[in-house]
Specification:
Layout (H helix, E strand, L loop, with lengths): L2 E5 L4 H12 L3 E6 L6 H13 L4 E5 L5 H15 L7 E6 L28 H24 L8 E6 L11 H21 L5 E7 L5 H4 L4 H11 L8 H11 L11 E4 L3 H4 L1
Parallel strand pairs: 1-2, 1-4, 2-3, 4-5, 5-6, 6-7
Helix pairs in contact: 1-2, 1-8, 3-4, 4-5
Bound molecules: nicotinamide-adenine-dinucleotide (NAD).
Length: 269
């Protein structure tokens, strides 16, 4: 087993994937962006992964920052040592960092600080697309350029039903998800000659810190439980278990897809 590189490894899907891949025998590189308050949680996670007998390296920084990304990848290259046959087998893009606001203010919205609400700004929209979509391209370039990922490599990016459905305040993230799915298709074709597969993974509504930041998340949760034919929300562990299966060599022909991992929620809803 080689290494799994997980962007967004300290929480939600990324954390569950780190735990599942460590159990499956992969060494783990995790990238996350957390304040000091989360340090204890991250230290406990790293200790759990190491207790599985795995090599583990976690980096707290902004995955969308060019310099920080290149520094992490250089460090990964020394850990993995591709010249000695070491490889990053898996890349999971699971970053939640976007602006959740309307494009155009609600006419009934109360003014903030005496000023009318403005709607999303250019900076907010571009930042959301950069972190939640475009960063996938740059991390993939960095891995391939360094010879860190080769034949048999698997790349997954977490998308949501928001890529094709309108949800209140979710416009910037919706746009990022649509772009992310497009990036996965493009990368799938460009990386096919290198025998690397790329798929977007569309999780169902899952109770994580990112979900709880969406205004009206209580309604989203209630609707998802009602729509889901399993009668419950998706869990990070549901998704992590599927990813472990998707890492197997027998899935080498599965690329360029948006894979629903939601218990049937999207087709039923
Ligand atoms: N929760 C859901 O219902 C749901 C459903 C479908 C898809 N998704 C997607 O799954 C992905 C992960 O979401 P989650 O629910 O697990 O969120 P989460 O809040 O539990 O975890 C987000 C992770 O991203 C990291 N992070 C955020 N910004 C970062 C940055 N700039 N640089 C480095 N790390 C950064 C955080 O530290 C954390 O580890 C997101 O893309 C989200 O849109 C979520």
């Amino acid at each position: 087993m080689g290494w799994a590189l997980i962007l967004g490894a300290s929480s939600g899907f990324g954390e569950a994937a780190a735990r599942a891949f460590a159990r499956a025998g992969y060494d783990i590189v995790g990238v996350h962006l957390d304040r000091r308050a989360a340090a204890e949680h991250v230290a406990a996670l790293v200790a759990d992964l190491e207790a599985q007998g795995r090599r583990v390296a976690f980096f707290n920084g902004n995955a969308a920052d060019d310099e920080q990304r290149e520094a992490v990848l250089d460090r990964v290259a020394t850990l993995v040592d591709p010249s000695a046959g070491g490889r990053v087998d898996l890349l999971l893009h699971s970053l939640a960092f976007g602006t959740l606001t309307r494009f155009v203010p609600d006419p009934d919205e109360a003014p903030v600080g005496g000023r009318a609400a403005a709607g999303v700004s250019r900076k907010q929209l571009e930042m959301t697309l950069d972190v939640m979509a475009n960063s996938l391209v740059y991390w993939t370039q960095g891995l391939v350029r360094r010879g860190l990922m080769g034949p048999g490599g698997r790349i997954w990016a977490m998308t949501s039903a928001g890529s094709h459905r309108v949800m209140p305040h979710y416009g910037p993230v919706s746009a990022a998800k649509a772009a992310l799915e497009s990036h996965c298709r493009q990368l799938a074709v460009e990386l096919a000659p290198r025998s690397i597969t790329v798929n977007a993974v569309m999780a169902g509504v899952t109770d994580t810190p990112a979900l709880r930041k969406i205004p009206g998340h209580d309604r989203l949760i209630a609707k998802a439980v009602e729509a889901n034919p399993h009668g419950r929300l998706t869990t990070p562990e549901d998704v992590a278990a599927c990813l472990v299966e998707l890492a197997r060599p027998g899935t080498a022909w599965l690329t360029g897809n948006v894979l629903r991992v939601d218990g049937g929620e999207d087709v039923a809803g």
